[in-house]
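Quick start: read one record
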Amino acid sequence: MFTGIVEELGEVTAVENLGDASRFRLRGPVVTDGAKHGDSIAVNGVCLTVVEHEGDEFTADVMAETLDRSSLGALGVGSRVNLERPTAVGDRLGGHIVQGHVDGTGEILARTPSENWEIVKISLPAGVARYVVEKGSITVDGISLTVVEAGAAHFTVSLIPTTLALTTLGLKQPGDPVNLEVDIVAKYVERLLATTTGGAER
């Protein structure tokens, strides 16, 4: 489990095509400290398993399913990525409960700078919008954010200078893809209501 509080801005140092998968090598001195084979690290909000670890770099295999459902397939050597280790038992839950299971990808639609923050408008894929509510939580590229406005096919978030400086959202421009994970509680509630009321599951 993660919290959506990005620990560092890492970098892709190599990408190997494995046919039906890809192997990524990523640099991140903070998240690799004490890392070992089998550990989980969230990369742009996608939970990946450490295959190898050497120095301040680690490798992770990404299956075709993940490449198809997330924006990881668009990464190349030199791409910057948000990195986070799983939450340790007893730690403070600074963001919200994040699984690292991407629900879909959105696209940066617009950026509106203000004096002390920036409003970013992001598209919502079909089937995801019903889980997004004003002042609710959403994970964008692994970053726990609060929804400012929730539209039928888009939402907006307000980014403080720290988020702009320390995550990929300070770098991405209109047209760039982002990984989205909605609040897991909303999906559980929908499933429970469908079961107790006899409604059809979608």
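Helices lie at 64-69, 161-166, 184-197.
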